[in-house]
Amino acid sequence: MRVKRITPVLYVEEIEPCVDFWTSRFGFQKTVEVPDGGRLGFVILRKDDLEIMYQSFASAAKDAPAIAKDIEGGRTFLYIEVDKLEPFIAAAKNANVVLPARTTFYGAQEIGLKDPTGHVVVFAEMGAQQQ
């Protein structure tokens, strides 16, 4: 068995603020957009080989009603390894930083912030001994 990619799907009330969060701060591109009424119901954002998906609770309830109750209210924590942390620290300016820049006991330099819907995203640059 070969795994080609793991892509998180984050469920939210409103997708639009998340699109702006990833595109304007971190340079992601919106590659797929699915409307649901006058709003976005689903979106795929991509940068290089990294991809993240968002789906609205309302869209998920229509798409998969059997699991919609399990989806609501859950928050996700993403840990994203980057080659250089400094640009991500700069991009986090005026964001909701919940984990100030630090160096961990295992040698990673990290910063953590919340996206506009409360999902926690930690960006980490691994130390030389970890590479």
In short:
With 131 residues, the protein is an alpha/beta fold. Helices cover 21% and strands 40% of the residues. It has two domains: 72 residues, 2,3-Dihydroxybiphenyl 1,2-Dioxygenase, domain 1; 57 residues, Signal recognition particle alu RNA binding heterodimer, srp9/1, CATH 3.30.720.
Describe this structure in words.
This protein is of the alpha/beta class. It has 2 domains: 1-72, 2,3-Dihydroxybiphenyl 1,2-Dioxygenase, domain 1; 75-131, Signal recognition particle alu RNA binding heterodimer, srp9/1, CATH 3.30.720.110. It has 4 helices and 8 strands, in the order E-H-E-E-E-H-H-E-H-E-E-E.
Describe the secondary structure blueprint for this structure.
Blueprint: E1 9-12, H1 16-26, E2 29-36, E3 39-47, E4 50-56, H2 57-63, H3 68-71, E5 77-81, H4 86-91, E6 96-103, E7 109-114, E8 120-125
Low-confidence stretches: none
Per CATH, the class of the largest domain reads Alpha Beta
Major β-sheet strand ordering? 1-4-3-2
Number of helices: 4
Overall pLDDT confidence:
89
- CATH fold-level topology of the largest domain: 2,3-Dihydroxybiphenyl 1,2-Dioxygenase, domain 1
